[in-house]
Amino acid sequence: MQNVQYITDVEGHKTAVILPIEDYEEMLEDLHFGKVARESKEEPKRDFNGFLEEMLQNGEISVSETKNFAMSLIPGCFQITQKFPNLLLGSPIFAL
Known about the structure:
Blueprint: E1 5-8, E2 14-18, H1 21-39, H2 48-57, H3 63-73, H4 77-83
Antiparallel strand pairs: 1-2
């Protein structure tokens, strides 16, 4: 965070903070996602590949979107698959 300003009392203790609206909104979003994660902790888990397959069958995503999404999950995955195209061919995601 940049441009954070503090309001202090007469003794110099920080009592409040002023920050850019973008930072504030990002913090709210992070808090929301944390709350959702905590609330859904006990919900049944779904297999990722099954989830993708269901979305494909329902027409919610395309094969190319699925591959692009999968490659975005691992930093550098796209570069790796470009150098070694057969590396992920056994994955259910790339078998589509």
